[in-house]
Amino acid sequence: MAHAAHCDHDHEHDHKPGPTAVAHELAAAEARCAAAEQKLTAPRRRVLELLLETGQPAKAYDLIAAFGADGKPAKPPTVYRALEFLEKQGFAHRIESLNAYVACRMGEAGHDAAFLICDCCGATREVDPSAAKGIADAGALAGYAVSHVTIEAHGKCADCQA
Ligand SMILES: [Zn+2]
Ligand SMILES: [Zn+2]
Ligand SMILES: [Zn+2]
């Protein structure tokens, strides 16, 4: 994924999991879908695979372009519908401030999420969303039925501060 570089050091820190890790995550996703009586259809599986391989937030149009193993792009609705499913089942999160999607490895459907986002290299990490509870509580006090909370914190990762 290309990121706007705001500093001139190299951004070669590798966040990509190996093929074994991706295969393992996909197998776990299949099992979770089966247990929840959901189908991890071929397009859903392919989009999840692309997100896992990237290891970082990916834009929908990048997923559409990379979709076909034969180099053919997907029909956009195929990818958007797959993303919707993955998000709902807790396999992926949408990061609003990046307009991108990222795979989730927490193994839990529909949980609150918090992200640390490096504005320099784009490295994004999902962290414990304990602060989400405070927001949900404030929502309840204000009479809002909060369905989920996603917190996005921007800054610089450890590598980019060095
Ligand atoms: Zn998550
Ligand atoms: Zn960084
Ligand atoms: Zn940097």
CATH class of the largest domain: Mainly Alpha
Radius of gyration: 17 Å
Based on Cα principal axes, name the global outline.
globular
Query: Which molecules are bound in this entry?
Result: zinc ion
Order of helices and strands: HHHHEEEEHEH
CATH topology category name of the largest domain: Arc Repressor Mutant, subunit A
* Secondary structure: number of strands: 5
Determine the fraction of residues in helical runs and give it as a percent range. 40-55%
Contiguous uncertain segments of 5+ residues: none
CATH superfamily of the largest domain, by name, is Winged helix-like DNA-binding domain superfamily/Winged helix DNA-binding domain
Please give the CATH architecture of the largest domain.
Answer: Orthogonal Bundle
In terms of structural class, how would the helical and strand content be classed? alpha+beta
Q: Identify the strand order in the major beta sheet.
A: 4-3-5
How many separate domains? Answer: 2
Task: Please give a handful of descriptors for the protein shown.
Dna Ligase, domain 1; alpha+beta; Arc Repressor Mutant, subunit A; binds zinc ion; 2 domains; globular; 3-stranded mixed beta sheet; two-stranded antiparallel sheet; 162 residues
Walkthrough of the structure:
The protein is an alpha+beta fold and 162 residues long. The protein folds into 2 domains: 91 residues, Arc Repressor Mutant, subunit A, CATH 1.10.10; 51 residues, Dna Ligase, domain 1. It is built from 6 helices and 5 strands. The protein has a 3-stranded mixed sheet, with helices on one face. Strand 3 and strand 4 form a beta hairpin. Helix 1 crosses helix 2, helix 2 crosses helix 4 and helix 3 packs across helix 4. The relative contact order is 0.15. The structure holds zinc ion (ZN) (3 copies).
